[in-house]
Amino acid sequence: MDDNFGQEVLKKIERDEISPEPKWKFLLADYTIWLVATACLLVGSLAVAVIIFIIFNNDWDLYHNATSNFWWFGLTSLPYLWILLLALFIGLVFYNLRHTRSGYRYRFHSIFIGTIIVSVILGILFYGIGFGRALERSLADSLPFYERFSPHHRLWQMAGEGRLGGVINTIDNQGNIRLRDSFGREWHINISQAEVIGDPNFIQPGQRLRVIGRQADEDEFEAQIIKPLFVPPHRQPMIPSR
Fold it and tell me: What is the three-class DSSP state of 189?
């Protein structure tokens, strides 16, 4: 029966003119998968860098001014969008590695844990270089919808609850600010009684601010505390004494 089976296979090969694929095609496919896996790993590492930046620059010093509950502030301001992106690319790395020629040799937990460790290490490195800050600022400046759908930004789009964030349009002679939030709405910010956290020189047109105070009218806001969102790297804002 084995001889008959072999004969049938040979006949089919001859009849269908089947020829073996060249080795370079398999190698190219394998290298492509590795390249895609590496790209996914790098994107995941950038996500880690942004997550670290957001957590370290989350205005923890202002939580008691924004809300009375530290845990509520922390949970509602976590960068869930980036955490989901990280999980997605870890999954893509695993999927691609398992489809390489030697992928079957690796166990699930080995790839999963290894990918997380490498992503965190590279993410810390990218954060130290400044990629996390640069990417977060670039997205906030160029993609208005990014702030609208990011919980850590949406937390500062609640003027009725005393929290407001946006970009400075103009500053008048009295020092009052015209600020545009992520929805394109303009606010007149009275800062005459406001306490500035950080270097006041950073408060200028084009700068992003986070403001704590109260909504005085439909488009007016009285600031109690103002703080630049993006300051030059390694310049930590001052924390007001209470």
Answer: strand
Which amino acid belongs to residue 210?
R
Rounded to whole angstroms, the Cα distance separating 101 from 235 reads: 48
**pLDDT (0 to 100) of residue 237:** 41
First-residue to last-residue Cα distance in the chain: 90
Angle at 203 between CA 59 and CA 64, to 5 degrees: 25
- Cβ atoms within 10 A of the Cβ of 193, count? 9
Please provide residue 163's backbone torsions phi and psi, each rounded to the nearest 5 degrees.
Answer: -125, 130
- According to the model, what pLDDT value does residue 204 have? 84
CB 209 within 8 A of CB 226: yes
pLDDT of residue 236: 45
What's residue 145's pLDDT? 78
Q: Which residues of the chain are under the pLDDT cut of 50?
A: 1, 234-242
Rounded distance between C-alpha atoms, residue 111 and residue 211, angstroms:
44
42 vs 199: CA distance, rounded Å:
34
> For the purposes of burial, counting CB atoms within 10 Å of the CB of 4, is it exposed (0-12), middle (13-18) or buried (19 or more)?
exposed
Per-residue buried b or exposed e for 137-163, using 16+ beta carbons within 10 Å of the residue's own CB: eebbeeeeebbeebebbbbbbebeebb
Token look-up 């790297």 returns 233
Distance from C-alpha of 137 to C-alpha of 231, rounded to nearest angstrom? 10
The pLDDT of residue 68? 64
